[in-house]
Specification:
The structure holds two protein chains of two kinds. By secondary structure, chain A is an alpha+beta fold. Chain A is built from seven helices and eleven strands. Chain A has a six-stranded mixed sheet. A four-stranded antiparallel sheet of chain A has the order 9-10-8-11, sandwiched between helices. Chain A starts with 7 loop residues before the first helix and ends in a 5-residue tail after the last strand. In chain B, 59% of the residues lie in helices and 1% in strands. Chains A and B meet through α1, β1, α2, α3 and α5 of A and α2, α3, α5, β1 and α7 of B.
């Protein structure tokens, strides 16, 4: 994660729907990000609450917050309280599952979000780490470390020489400053995931330019959440 | 522009080198970090200040009742009590306002985490109560009011940089305790205190919150969090009363923050928000945990 000045609005913020910055606002943020990372129609959604969340999600409205985020409702939007009704009206179906056993490597406030349609599927693990701040820690088996504060590119590619160099070259040519990168793979020569956090917005044409390169399978651009 | 400061001393030397007063520096710094203009930063501050007002009006206009049954519209009761011991309007409003915002949060209303959701009533409650009770001729304009929120936030930055603002890490001293210190600084700023006195008032308030456990019943942001907002508002008022009378803190603010960090690190895990200690495991606390345990038999499994 890129080192960041503490802003006045980190202290006097975020604007949120209560009651808990970690169990409500943070969960809404993770779900909102999940939907940005999976910008496709969703036929099936499952939200699993681990640890502290499994025990207290209803009292904290974590379930409403998660559904709101999946519907693209921001943590500060009062529609969050009505997300179940909005989901019902729009035919969005979901499942909420409390998991009381917390795996050792999971953060104490962990949520796993699974989204799928006929062609695609994503499994994402997020942690709500306090004050509304969050970390996406796993995407489809890749261990990542994404705060969502900064805008980011998720570049899924074949694990081969030079991918990071090409991507950073394209961003540099478009005067986009890279705040941080991290590279993740399961096995050498297999599919890999490059996460690039950036300081300014990345336009569609740049995303397409990167996506058109042979070793690259897909690129997802996630606008930063910081408010 | 220099944007990093970890101590009051750092901050004083940054102000000197940037040649700006505290409020002016904080706006300029924010504009620099966010890549915005000072006007945009001020507009965002005003927007957030108005959100705190809407929350407190909501908490006072109708009883707030939470899902768990732990929050039962006490702010309405406190705003118009049948009996009172301290009748000064500033005091009575400060505790009622702080409670009102905290209740709105507990009931799923729109608030601003300040510095956390559980402590979100303390700064707005005290600052709005002060503004609302000024006699005519001593009104506080928007610019001065905004500056008080900036100064309060600055105290939060100092605690975040060298300790923590998370109850799960430092106990409630890091949430309501921090908010009390922030409120004291904001009030001191509204009272016209100089730079040193602002942070001294924060030190006085923070010292009196050191060691506060985070032991919420059933893990919810309600008991003791909601009422603690009213108590910490009173704490901030006392700190500024001492400061204005010339009673200063023996231990400077930066050293109090060091102590807060050390105490937080030595707090047992069950007093740091995991709901396994203190009030959470009293017989009454445990009975509430059983009552709201998830999922309850009637819980729907989605639509």
């Amino acid at each position: 994660m890129a080192e960041k000045n503490v802003s006045i609005f980190d202290i006097f913020g975020p604007i949120m729907i209560g009651p808990s910055s970690s169990h409500t606002a943070g969960i809404a943020r993770i779900a909102y990000l999940a939907r940005k990372i999976f910008p496709y129609p969703v036929d099936r959604a499952r939200v699993s609450f681990y640890g502290s969340l499994a025990w207290t999600y209803r009292g904290h409205g974590s379930d409403k917050a998660a559904v709101a985020g999946l519907l693209g409702i921001m943590p500060e939007d009062e529609r969050l309280n009505h997300s179940f009704e909005i989901a019902a009206e729009s035919g969005f179906t979901y499942e909420i599952v409390p998991v009381y056993e917390l795996p050792e490597r999971y953060h104490v406030n962990t949520v796993i979000i699974e989204l799928e349609n006929a062609e695609r599927r994503i499994v994402l693990r997020g942690a709500s780490i306090g004050g509304g701040s969050i970390l996406i820690q796993e995407i489809n088996g890749f261990e990542v470390d994404l705060s969502g504060e900064l805008s980011a590119l998720l570049v899924s590619h074949h694990d081969e020489v030079g991918v990071i160099a090409i991507v950073s070259h394209i961003l540099a040519a478009n005067r986009i400053n890279i705040a941080g990168t991290s590279s993740h793979r399961k096995e050498k020569g297999d599919e890999a995931l490059l996460v690039v956090e950036v300081d300014s917005p990345v336009g569609k044409s740049i995303v397409q330019q990167i996506e058109s390169l042979p070793p690259i399978y897909s690129v997802v651009y996630i606008p930063g959440l910081s408010n | 522009m220099k944007t990093r400061f970890h101590t009051v001393q750092d901050l004083a030397s940054v102000l000197e080198s940037e040649n700006l007063p505290l409020g002016g520096y904080l706006v300029a710094r924010e504009a620099f970090i966010q890549g915005k203009t000072a006007d945009e930063v001020n507009a965002e501050l005003d927007r957030r200040i108005q959100i705190t007002r809407a929350a407190l009006d909501r908490g006072l206009s109708a009883p707030q009742l939470s899902f768990s049954g732990l929050t039962r519209g006490n702010a309405v009761r406190l705003a118009a009590p049948e009996k009172a011991i301290v009748t000064d309007p500033f005091y009575t409003r400060a505790i009622a306002y702080a409670l009102a915002v905290a209740e709105v949060n507990a009931c799923g209303g729109r608030v601003i985490s300040f510095p956390t959701a559980g402590s979100c009533g303390i700064v707005p409650g005290t600052l709005w109560a002060f503004r609302d009770t000024r006699p005519s001729g001593e009104e506080i304009d928007d610019a001065r009011f905004r500056e008080a929120f900036l100064v309060a936030s600055c105290v939060g930055i100092l605690i975040a940089e060298r300790a923590t603002l998370a109850g799960a890490e430092g106990g409630c001293q890091a949430e309501c305790g921090a908010a009390g210190a922030m409120a004291a600084a904001g009030l001191a700023s509204l009272c016209g205190c100089a730079f040193g006195a602002i942070f001294d008032a924060a030190a006085l308030s923070l010292k009196n919150s050191l060691g506060l456990a985070c032991d919420p019943v059933a893990g919810l942001v309600e008991v003791p969090c909601v009422k603690r907002n009213a108590f910490l508002a009173a704490n901030a008022l006392t700190a500024v009363s001492l400061e204005l009378a010339g009673v200063t803190s023996v231990i400077p603010f930066d050293e109090v923050v060091t102590a807060l960090k050390a105490i937080g690190d030595s707090l047992p895990a069950n007093l740091r928000e995991n709901a396994q200690g203190g009030l959470a495991v009293t017989p009454t606390g445990l009975s509430y945990r059983e009552k709201i345990r998830d999922p309850r038999p009637e819980a729907p499994a989605g639509v």
